[in-house]
Amino acid sequence: MKISNILITLIILFFAACNSNNNDTDHGHEHNTEDNDHSHDNDSNHKEQEEFIISDDSANSKSNEMGNGNGELSKDFLSNQENQITLVVPANKGIEYKFYIKQYEKLIYEWSADAPLYFDFHGEPLDYDVTKYFESYTIATADEMKGTMTIPFEGSHGWYWKNNSNKDVVVILKAEGKYKVIGLK
């Protein structure tokens, strides 16, 4: 995609965000780290969450997932897949992107951003009250991260990115493993 198309998309997303309803009520637990605090609500969403996906190659992912016959993904069978997702973290806002992964599966990941972001790579156990428990694997500020994670428990796992700058930041996330994409939460 040409840079001019990306810029136009970013501008459209920015204006859409400006016109959207901002709900900044805090009704979850606090997980504080200096000026970069975020919280989960009862649905494991971070406050200040807005939907900003530029592209998601899920349609092109290498996947052969079996359903349960009702159009739903069976959690008993998750095939290996690869995805590349381009996200926008709006200026002075945060977003969260998650995958459903079973215990002891491996997640190979790599993400890069065009500016440093505060992030929390973490997971929440399946069917557990996330206002009481979630586990952070890495909390830092960086413009990239890559590695392999053996998932310690079944549930949702992924990243919360917080943009503390006055400029939108683009994140390109690549993931490979046996998972179901939950997406933005």
Q: Assign the CATH class.
A: Mainly Beta
- Please identify, by name, the CATH architecture: Sandwich
Q: Give the overall average pLDDT.
A: 73
Number of individual domains = 1
According to CATH, what is the topology? Jelly Rolls
Helix content: under 10%
Strand content: over 45%
> What ranges have pLDDT less than 50 throughout 5 or more consecutive residues?
10-51, 58-74
Shape: globular
* Secondary structure tally: strands: 10
Quick one: CATH superfamily?
Answer: GOLD domain
Give me the strand/helix succession.
HEEEEEEEEEE
Q: Main sheet, how many strands, which sense, barrel?
A: 8 strands, antiparallel
Say what oligomer this is.
Answer: single chain
* Span of the ends, CA to CA: 26 Å
What structural class do helix, strand and pairing data support?
Answer: mainly beta
Mind telling me the C-alpha Rg?
16 Å
Number of helices: 1
